[in-house]
Amino acid sequence: MDLMWGLAVVGAVCIGWILLKMLWTCWCGFTTFFLSEIWRVDLKKYGKWAVVTGATSGIGRAYAKELARRGLDVVLISRSNEKLQMVAEEIEAEYGRRTLTIQADFTGGGSIYPAIEEALRGIDIGILVNNVGMSYSGSFSQFLDVPDSELKISQVVNCNMLSVTQMTRIVLPDMVKRGSGLIINIGSEIGARPYPFLSLYCATKVFVRYISLCLDSEYRSKGITVQCVAPLLVSTNMTFNCRVNGLVKSASDFAREALNTVGYTNYTNGCVSHGLQSFVLKLGSGLVHRLAYLMKKPREVPENLHKD
Ligand SMILES: NC(=O)c1ccc[n+]([C@@H]2O[C@H](COP(=O)([O-])OP(=O)(O)OC[C@H]3O[C@@H](n4cnc5c(N)ncnc54)[C@H](OP(=O)(O)O)[C@@H]3O)[C@@H](O)[C@H]2O)c1
């Protein structure tokens, strides 16, 4: 009888714990995606200027424009001077904010950062958006099937990981001195769990997620927020400007919704649609692996492939 009572208590505690966790998840989703539409952090409190890497198209351009719309002056960094000038003119004409453009190629490795640091010297930078990132043609192939000329290992590593680290090293010291700052790192849902056939890109996004969460813990007490945003599909050049629908967001809608989540969470899929898709993928991550493998090699599914 005693054993029965003991098991009943353990069962009740477990069910209570699961219910509490579910309630907490729902509450977090509600505050992050719905309450944040009404109560937003005033992003101007972090400082006058925002810096956005990869700012001439897609998600980066959308972040730059949304930040300008919310009252910040914007430093735009990308490879093409022509495109930089175009986006800068758009921002100045549409929102009346100041802009500064810096031409840089983030595949270039450590040598590009002294010039960027020099160009940013003396500017009151409140927000850094580490958005720049690249995939490679031939992705969705087995690792060895991607030719060296397309995989471009050092370029992907430099662009997706070194840029986040180095840009943070440049802006963080002044943020710490002022006791205020926001760093947004654009990761990907692909960094949330292993995605076969996108191995290198996937691994770089895991890096973005982990460095964001570590830095957020290290510097939160100094007034710095580090947020990792992990989108699913956003219609941009990277995704061949695929059609916007319930699952695929436009870059401008995505940036607006993702910026609303600042102050609510340090890790987010950015919008409610992507949050729900991520939740479903999490439930079936083993299935995702098996499907990815089946799509590639119908007769070569190894027995020990991810059985959870
Ligand atoms: N789109 C999605 O569905 C999706 C999903 C998950 C995560 N993401 C992540 O979101 C970020 C932005 O992606 P996106 O889809 O907006 O890409 P995109 O449309 O291809 O835009 C990339 C931006 O980065 C700049 N850029 C590219 N390579 C560069 C380099 N080597 N040096 C300097 N600037 C460079 C491009 O401008 P220039 O060509 O003028 O240099 C452009 O402004 C990436 O980190 C990506 O991994 C995207």
From TrEMBL:
Keyword Membrane: yes
Gene Ontology CC terms: endoplasmic reticulum
Biological processes, Gene Ontology terms: multicellular organismal response to stress; steroid biosynthetic process
Superkingdom assignment: Eukaryota
InterPro entries recorded: NAD(P)-bd_dom_sf, SDR_fam, VLCFA-Steroid_DH
Pfam families according to UniProt: adh_short
Gene3D superfamilies: NAD(P)-binding Rossmann-like Domain
Keywords, comma-separated and alphabetical: Lipid biosynthesis, Lipid metabolism, Membrane, Oxidoreductase, Steroid biosynthesis, Transmembrane, Transmembrane helix
GO molecular function ontology, one term from the record: androstan-3-alpha,17-beta-diol dehydrogenase (NAD+) activity
Transmembrane region(s): 6-35
Matches recorded under SUPFAM superfamilies: NAD(P)-binding Rossmann-fold domains
Record carries keyword Lipid biosynthesis: yes
Protein name in UniProt: Hydroxysteroid (20-beta) dehydrogenase 2
Organism: Gadus morhua (Atlantic cod)
Lineage, broadest ranks: Eukaryota, Metazoa, Chordata, Craniata, Vertebrata
Gene expressing this chain: hsd20b2
